TrEMBL record:
GO terms for molecular function: aldehyde dehydrogenase (NAD+) activity. This is Oxidoreductase. GO terms for cellular component: cytoplasm. SUPFAM superfamilies: NAD(P)-binding Rossmann-fold domains. Pfam families: Epimerase. PANTHER family: NAD(P)-BINDING DOMAIN-CONTAINING PROTEIN-RELATED, PROTEIN YEEZ. Residues 3-210 form the NAD-dependent epimerase/dehydratase domain. Gene3D superfamilies: NAD(P)-binding Rossmann-like Domain.
């Protein structure tokens, strides 16, 4: 199968490219820089130059492929509304190319803002262009009624592994900067988690087995308490561990505090049964203890 992937050199995208190529698929990745293009070519993937704002490029990529996996997103917290509008235009463009083809069209999403713990049958409340991420999960699933085998890929808030520069890497950075590994309040708030290789394998299985309109959960662990995450980071960097009072969370953690203090838990039983998928990678705490977030294991962001 020829698969067009956006976000192809990102954290999840890179693992997905590896999984697809290893399974014999032909892959074209969207690349906005020479460095990204070189990474894709080194793996044996084809390259389509452009970015998420280049709608004509996205159209060409979708037209030439048997399936589209949209993992790209502009994580610009200074203009998150603008990032949502860009993402909505991208999803609308890609979906319209695929109308009536019954080709797979998978769009990355998340768990924040949905009643906890999130199950696959829960509908996202984010609808319309002014919603978070431009309401793209709902938009993508709308295409299931137009002859597109579209599905939502809901990723755990931490998709972890050696080389991750996401949420847990940011928590580790804050801990080193502050000299203490903190957790909000009593530390019972929890996050879902999944190893990046498990997430990539789930996506690959979905290409053949996910029905139109599916909501798929890349979740290996339902609820990892924030205190346990902080304790593991403390062990990794030999730092004391402490509770951060609710009124000081944002000041202590910065932007990541809005997420670390929010519950983001989910199950994946339906996804596992639907795809025959069983997460086998290490858990989040094991990954931290094994050095996945050591100083030399996390690349510089950007």
């Amino acid at each position: 199968m020829h698969v067009f992937v956006t976000g192809a050199t990102g954290w999840i995208g890179s693992a997905t490219i590896n999984e697809l190529l290893a399974s014999g698929h032909r892959v074209t990745g969207l690349a906005r820089s020479d460095a990204s293009a070189a990474k894709l070519e080194a793996k044996g993937a084809e390259v389509l130059r452009g970015n998420l704002g280049d709608l004509e490029v996205l159209r060409r990529g979708a037209e030439s492929a048997d399936a589209v996996i949209h993992l790209g997103f502009n994580h610009d917290f200074s203009d998150i509304a603008g990032a949502g509008r860009t993402d909505r235009a991208a999803v609308d463009t890609l979906g319209n190319v695929l109308v009536g083809t019954n080709r797979p069209f998978f769009v990355a999403s998340g768990l924040a803002g949905i009643q906890q713990p999130v199950t696959e049958d829960q509908v996202s409340p984010f609808v319309g262009p002014d919603a978070p991420r431009g309401g793209t999960e709902a938009l993508a699933l709308d295409f299931a009624e137009q002859g597109v085998r579209s599905a939502a890929l809901r990723f755990a808030p931490t998709v972890h592994g050696t080389g991750d520069h996401g949420f847990v890497a940011e928590l580790a950075r804050v801990a080193r900067e502050k000299g203490v590994s903190g957790y909000p309040g009593d530390g019972t708030n929890a996050w879902a988690a999944v190893h990046v290789t498990d997430a990539a394998r789930m996506i690959r299985l979905a290409l053949t087995d996910a029905p139109a309109g599916a909501r798929l959960h890349a979740v290996g662990e339902t609820a990892v308490p924030t205190r346990q995450i902080a304790e593991a980071i403390g062990r990794a960097f030999d730092l004391p561990v402490a509770s951060i009072p609710a009124g000081q969370v944002l000041d202590h953690f910065g932007w990541i505090g809005r997420f670390f203090g929010s519950p983001m838990t989910a199950t994946s039983l339906n996804t596992q049964q639907l795809l025959g998928w069983t997460p086998t990678g290490p858990g989040l705490i094991t990954d931290i203890d094994n050095g996945a977030y050591a100083l030399d294991a996390v690349p510089l962001a950007g």
